[in-house]
Amino acid sequence: MHLRTILTELDVSEHLASNDALLNRDFVCLPANADSPEPADTEHTVLLTQLSDLHHHVGARHHSAVIALTDRPLDHDQDVPPKTTICRSAIPFDVARQRFDRLAHLAPSLDSAKARLFDSFQRTYNIQQFTREAYDVIGNPLIVTDTGNRIIATAGDFPANRPDITEQLSKGYVSQSVHQSMLDNNVIEEARRNRSATISVNKTYNQEWITSIIYYKNLEMGRFDVLAMSRNFGAYDLELVEYAGALADILLDRMNPVAAQTISSAAILEDVMNNRFIHESEAVERLSGAGFTPSPAYALIMIQGNQSFATPNYNSHIGGILHTIFPESIWLVYNGYFFLLLPLKPTSSSGYEYYEILQERILHDGALEQALRNNSLRAYVSDPFHQILECREQLYVCRMLSRVIFDDEPISFCRRHRQHIMAYHYSIRHDISVLLDKRILRMYQYDVNKHTEYIATLAAHLRFPGNAAKAAASLNVHRNTYFYRLRKLQEIFHIDLGDGKDMIDVATTLDVTEHFPTISGTAPKINPLPMDTNEE
User: Is the pLDDT of residue 529 over 50?
Assistant: First the structure.
């Protein structure tokens, strides 16, 4: 049993230890009427005495530590003998003695309960299963949350007359008011400062909670909270809950590869993808509380490579690389798709500057392109958007984008392929040629049959609007030849190059047919790449 647990049972309000490391060491309480322990056991025994009698026990060999009690304020300048903890407690010494002796009898039971928790830990990598089995050992309902107050596991039956708890369980988050109350009452701060479980009381319902901070490699991962139902808590419960929390931290790290970044922000983003938020403000508030900085605009970057994102170690490796380039981002693997949510720099422009801001952020110093090439990856970048709740739709658009890119460039922007994405999306269920301008489709056939170059001429006209010299040069023909072809294609195919609407129609069709060559040939239908069965 930890020395800290023993001090809690003795209602110690302040203490002076010769070495603070003693507080987290395991000891066996030596009752007043106990025989002297065997020499091999003396390193693990602790003796209780009054401060006035401490001099009788300093240097004795039948124990390894001494707790010296007093009811007077402590002199923090006094010397503390080795292996000694001087404590102040308001309870009478005879009551303290009874509690201390009772702990000696509880120690085997505590060791047995810890062994059961450890056995559960060894059998599972699942935090929810471990939480259920921890409930069987601890005997009181419990909640496991991450650092963003997201509830990730529960066990046990919570009281029906606690609407505050019922609401939180239904929403999947500890409410902001409850969290703030814990901060105001220093519950969380005390648990952090002492690195140990602490007891608090909900005054409205007069019920106790044990709060234990979950740490992994000195990183705060969340909380392990237990509600007292059948009885009030004691030091025994504190140590048991603290031990369960210590095992939960390892399970959390195993379970979630996002632990390398901010575990809670990625978990909240996953909730966004699963449509768990109705209002944008709620999602923004949760992400802000997890350390993510909201922005007026965002972009989503989907990453693909030769290897599937099914291995946590591989995901963490790629996530670490990209997080170095975009430290302000959150990354997540969702349904096998790896993506980042990237906040964009705010702008005071009254126009729309976010396309330029996005391109500069993505292409800045070539770091992303180099990382992608080094790891055989590709990035598909969404348009800027302004609502975090749009992430799910933006990921879908990036998935469409990945299916219409046929070059070897590592970075592709949705902005450059809007018509291609729309055409591809329609082609999943239908023949895209029914939506295309038939004059352009006939022009392709005409060029093949008559050996003309009207498609190339029209493309040059669209590519270099108002610049006949550049258009003619791109075709390797004289300006007069260029103008002659333009006149002829207008006559043959009834296209009005002076009509803006007509130009939009032919430009869209020309863009789509140039990108998907099968449309312009004998089979005017896109042959879609294999899609997910749930893709709409």
Answer: no
